[in-house]
Write a structure and sequence with these properties.
This protein is an alpha+beta fold. 53% of the residues lie in helices and 15% in strands. It has a 4-stranded mixed β-sheet with strand order 1-2-3-4, covered by helices on one side. It is elongated.
């Protein structure tokens, strides 16, 4: 086994141990806000309990079967645009915004679904355009989180999001944005995205080793990040997101570790944040 393999295996062990220490009481914790200002009073009354119903749907369900779980906050905001009453279920158009308050945010304006007051939401495995939207983005959030615990560790959850899209094709609501969501999840699961997903894992490893004051191993992970950054298309939008989230931490760590040459290279690779990097050189 070569030296780099030892580093990666040991790093994975540390990450899993840190997660396992919190695994007993952790889960997805969501707060749902529903805005019905654009609707008439009758429609508002029908939706009066929706926020609490959706919170129960999210918070009372075990979204993962992985023992290394940790608490993930989730803010869900639903903005209703219009309502079309029918004799059975009313049809609604809405905008949804989801965020974990740190590194995940999603907004989707093409959300159409039916809802009947007093409906009981269940995780039946059947597609419903209301809960299907929540499921889709929650699994993307979980995919992002588990990519941090292991290299490509979020694949299982991204595939679950993809399965929801496949189920939507048999629904009358497929034309309400699901084709675009299919394209989105296909991009996430594409071979082109693999190096970017792995960067998140390497970054978390560097962060954990810095916290443990193991500068040698942290520096090795930072070098791995730089090697990967050299090979990634600099025009990719997702790469810019990685820099936005992590450039300050990487600059600080490289400076603390005395890795000036690597810091200068990072400045060349990411000129948009060159001013920040120069402050640490």
């Amino acid at each position: 086994m070569n030296r780099s393999s030892v580093i990666l295996i040991t790093g994975c062990f540390i990450t899993l141990c840190l997660a396992a220490s919190q695994a007993r009481c952790q889960k997805l914790v969501a707060t749902v806000n529903v805005n019905t200002e654009k609707l008439i009073q009758e429609s508002r009354e029908k939706l009066a309990n929706l926020s609490s119903e959706l919170e129960r749907y999210i918070n009372d369900y075990d979204w993962t079967d992985n023992e290394y779980r940790y608490e993930i906050p989730l803010q869900v905001d639903v903005f209703f645009e219009r309502a079309q009453p029918t004799s059975f279920e009313d049809r609604y158009d809405a905008v949804i915004v989801l965020s974990n308050a740190t590194d995940f945010q999603a907004s989707d304006r093409r959300w159409a679904f039916t809802y009947m007051q007093g409906s009981q939401f269940t995780h039946s495995g059947q597609f419903h355009p209301l809960t299907g939207m929540l499921d889709f983005y929650i699994y993307i959030l979980l995919g992002q989180e588990y990519d941090k615990l292991a290299k490509l560790g979020g694949t299982e959850y991204y595939k679950k999001a993809s399965k929801i899209v496949q189920l939507s094709k048999f629904s009358e609501f497929y034309q309400s944005g699901w084709k675009e969501r299919e394209s989105h999840i296909q991009q996430i699961l594409s071979d082109e995205r693999v190096p970017l997903r792995e960067l998140e894992y390497f970054f978390v490893q560097a962060k954990q080793w810095m916290r443990l004051d193991n500068r040698k191993t942290a520096g090795q992970y930072l070098r791995v990040i730089l090697i990967r950054l050299r090979k990634i298309n600099p025009e990719l939008k997702e790469l810019n997101r990685f820099y936005q989230l992590h450039h300050l931490d990487m600059a600080r760590w490289l400076s603390l570790l005395g890795m000036r040459q690597e810091l200068e290279e990072l400045s060349r690779l990411n000129p948009d944040n060159a001013v920040t990097y120069r402050q640490f050189i």
